[in-house]
């Protein structure tokens, strides 16, 4: 696509993109980090990777036996 365009058209496209990016609302990184940490810590009590899976709900535990290689 860019091969079919003149240098002036490419520069106009770049300028339009930069105008869009300038008007994008921004938030400070520390505010985003604070929100992310609060979100993750809020979900941590129910996370099976942190808390583990109870034996009664774990399909891989129990008296199914194991694999024996002979």
TrEMBL record:
Annotated InterPro entries: G-protein_gamma, G-protein_gamma-like_dom, GGL_sf
Lipid bilayer topology: Lipid-anchor
Region (Disordered): 50-70
Keyword Metal-binding: no
Annotated GO MF terms: G-protein beta-subunit binding
Superkingdom field: Eukaryota
Family: Belongs to the G protein gamma family.
Function: Guanine nucleotide-binding proteins (G proteins) are involved as a modulator or transducer in various transmembrane signaling systems. The beta and gamma chains are required for the GTPase activity, for replacement of GDP by GTP, and for G protein-effector interaction.
The protein's name in its UniProt record: Guanine nucleotide-binding protein subunit gamma
